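Support request, please re-run this one:
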Amino acid sequence: MKIGIGIPNQGSDLDPKIIPEWSRRAEAAGFSSLATAGRIAYPGVMDTVALAAAAGATSTIELFSGVLIGPAWPATLLAKELAGVDGVSGGRLTLGIGLGGRADDFVVDGLPMNGLGQRLDDDLQTYFDVWDGKEFEGSPNPGVPAGARRLPLLFGGAAPATFERAARVGEGYVGAAVPAPYVAPAFDQMRTAWKQAGRDGDPQLRAIAYFAMGDPEVARRKVEEYYAVTPEFGQAVLTGIAYGPEGVRELLRSFEDIGTDELILNPSTADLDEIERLAEVAL
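Re-run finished. Output below.
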């Protein structure tokens, strides 16, 4: 199982200037990927901006959006922006994408929180058209440079359509930031959908969890603040935070047991020292 680390781009105590340094340290420590959190109505840094900063500060580590709220964006603009991040990184971006579950994140006029599944399916076709270099409507020009590619896609969510969509156009699935026993049934659903779609091999199965090597009370408060708008789900997230070295080791075992290909460990605070502390235990 590979071990990635989250960028604290949505931490309420975030100084945005640390994102490049966080990214450099994570790459040097040997983590497999750097992942962002997707949120708009929160005092953080947009995931696309954090990914761009990480792309410029690193050279080998994978970049992952875990997960970006697709239908909250105008599809053409998002596709172009992501192609730019991927290009700057040298082709290291994997797009984790989902529908979104918080009404306050839908801030763009004309893009409300309804009809999200159909909108995402329509948006995906727009992404592919942009990434394939098709001309924009009313223009003789494509929106991306030559050499742009279709980004690998992983989908997050719990609706049956999520797994069908992932099996149809994606590379796999990313679970929510809850304990492994809650994620295991979703992994099983993804494996089943993959086989039913006639796909070869196995889907990528990624998971997300929070860790804290420092003060557990501070960590818990920060995570609780972030999920305050969805308190029932937030309680499930809180039960899965790994505290200290032994907590992290136990967390790793639990996700290995359910067949996780990569576990993204999200920091509970924006303390740069957490990177090395985690690496000593998890890598």
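The chain has a mean pLDDT of 96. The CA atoms of residues 133 and 182 lie 40 Å apart.
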